[in-house]
């Protein structure tokens, strides 16, 4: 899908955050572990969620998705090889591996796809599965994981910090009587997943440097859960407000945004917030030096949006991307749009300017696409953005929310 954006207008109004993409995907997969039905609220209507729903339906689950509420009934769930195209379209399909290992002791799946922001191997997941008694093989893009030995208790250390592997190893460990896992990484979305597992009846405890679990018998019940709001969506609208207008962002747990909020406040931006709302008003701040880090550090998913903000500061700002190898596309677009920008070794130094010349752009990943939209909306002129489908994978009702704020965006 391509969109045409007419920039330079005032962007003003209120916008409510939706449920977080990176919590919804593991939560939907984890609903297969429920004994009874699951009612999820605040589910974002994004294509990654529709893809996971498609997979659940192919496994004979009933899924009713109305508005932002979803009812999942896994009574008729059947084991099937996960050789569906949806598995390759999205990255988060890998959460089905951990879930399947607990439910069926095996999983055959097309290797997960997703945004092309680096090599994105799954070796940390696979090593954790091995430590939990599983063996795996990869042939022709199909991963086959199966039980090698019956492990009842485990004390494992993940090879490296990984959001996805921490959640996935936890899912795979739920068939054990007891586990402790070290070197784990639970961002707000992962913590939401742990909260959900506890509601389902899996008592996983998050300690300072590990998660621990001791099996309990599951009760048959209806589990209700409201998904945590999307902190990256909030940052996207906040940066848009700072660049182009006056936006109040509602329904967001600002405690999950401490680092980006502090960076902006320290640079002098006009940002006000309380526990659940942010007000961002057009302003020009001082240059910033930012490095992406694991939570609670500055999130890699917000890096591209800050790049656009850097182009409007008064001086040189820098961004070091330290999580993914290939996530610097926006800086090349800034360069092509007349912004002075030095890009080397995943670091960009951007000189703020008043004149940015919009052109036609191509989104290479979800967050890059969102940043391109901010760039186009906040500068005079017209821009065509191709590959915009990427953005709809992760932003709920994006085009309508932008239009409601006064943004001029047309689907071509
Ligand atoms: N990595 C490995 N081996 C693994 C797993 C990860 O080398 O087995 C590397 C990755 O290639 C990356 C780094 O470790 O360089 C961190 O990856 P991590 O596993 O922490 O991230 P992820 O689970 O792949 C999730 C989100 C990302 C988000 C990151 C960090 C999902 C589906 N994806 O990715 O979301 O950037 O955590 O918060 O939850 C996005 O929303 O745009 C997005 C890319």
Describe the structure.
With 412 residues, the chain is α+β, with helices and mostly antiparallel strands. The protein is 32% helix and 26% strand. It contains 14 helices and 23 strands. It has helices at 21-30, 47-58, 85-89, 95-104, 123-131, 163-173, 188-200, 231-244, 258-266, 303-310, 329-336, 366-377, 389-392, 398-404, and strands at residues 3-7, 11-16, 38-41, 62-66, 69-73, 106-110, 134-139, 142-147, 153-157, 178-182, 204-206, 210-214, 223-226, 245-250, 270-273, 278-281, 289-291, 316-320, 341-344, 347-351, 361-362, 381-386, 408-411. The strands form 6 sheets. Strands 21-22-1-23 form a 4-stranded mixed β-sheet. A 4-stranded mixed β-sheet has the order 2-14-16-15. A 4-stranded mixed β-sheet has the order 4-5-3-13, covered by helices on one side. The longest helix has 14 residues, at 231-244. The model has no long low-confidence stretch (mean pLDDT 96). Bound molecules: uridine-diphosphate-2(N-acetylglucosaminyl) butyric acid.
């Amino acid at each position: 899908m391509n969109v045409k954006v007419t920039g330079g207008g005032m962007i003003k109004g209120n916008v409510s955050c939706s449920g977080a993409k990176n919590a919804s995907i593991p939560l939907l997969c984890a609903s297969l572990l429920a004994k009874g039905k699951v009612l999820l609220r605040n589910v974002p209507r994004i294509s990654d969620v529709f893809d996971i729903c498609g997979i659940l339906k192919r496994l004979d689950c009933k899924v009713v998705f109305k508005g932002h509420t979803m009812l999942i009934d896994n009574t008729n769930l059947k084991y099937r090889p996960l050789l569906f195209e949806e598995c390759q379209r999205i990255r988060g399909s890998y959460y089905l591996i951990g879930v399947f290992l607990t439910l069926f002791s095996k999983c055959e799946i097309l290797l997960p796809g997703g945004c092309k922001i680096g090599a994105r191997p799954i070796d940390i997941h696979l090593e954790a599965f091995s430590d939990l008694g599983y063996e795996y093989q990869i042939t022709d893009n199909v991963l086959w994981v199966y039980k090698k030995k019956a492990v009842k208790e485990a004390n494992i250390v993940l090879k490296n910090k990984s959001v996805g592997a921490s959640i996935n190893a936890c899912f795979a460990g739920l068939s054990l009587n007891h586990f402790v896992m070290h070197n784990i990484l639970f961002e707000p979305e992962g913590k939401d997943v742990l909260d959900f597992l506890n509601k389902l009846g899996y008592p996983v405890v998050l300690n300072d440097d590990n998660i621990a679990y001791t099996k309990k018998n599951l009760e048959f019940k209806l589990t209700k859960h409201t998904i945590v709001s999307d902190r990256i969506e909030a940052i996207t609208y906040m940066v848009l407000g700072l660049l182009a207008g006056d936006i109040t962002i509602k329904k967001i747990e600002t405690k999950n945004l401490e680092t980006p909020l502090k960076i902006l406040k320290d640079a002098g931006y006009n940002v006000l917030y309380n526990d659940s709302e942010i007000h961002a008003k057009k302003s020009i701040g001082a240059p910033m030096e930012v490095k992406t880090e694991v939570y609670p550090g500055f999130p890699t998913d917000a890096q591209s949006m800050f790049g656009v903000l850097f182009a409007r500061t008064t001086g040189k700002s820098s961004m070091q991307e330290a999580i993914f190898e290939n996530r610097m596309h926006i800086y090349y677009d800034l360069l092509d749009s007349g912004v002075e920008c030095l890009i080397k070794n995943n670091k960009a130094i951007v000189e703020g300017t008043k004149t940015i010349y919009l052109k036609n752009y191509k989104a290479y990943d979800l967050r890059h696409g969102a940043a391109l939209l901010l760039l186009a909306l906040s500068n005079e002129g017209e821009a065509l953005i191709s590959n915009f489908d990427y953005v709809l994978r992760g932003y709920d009702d994006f085009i309508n929310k932008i239009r409601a704020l006064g943004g001029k965006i047309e689907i071509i």
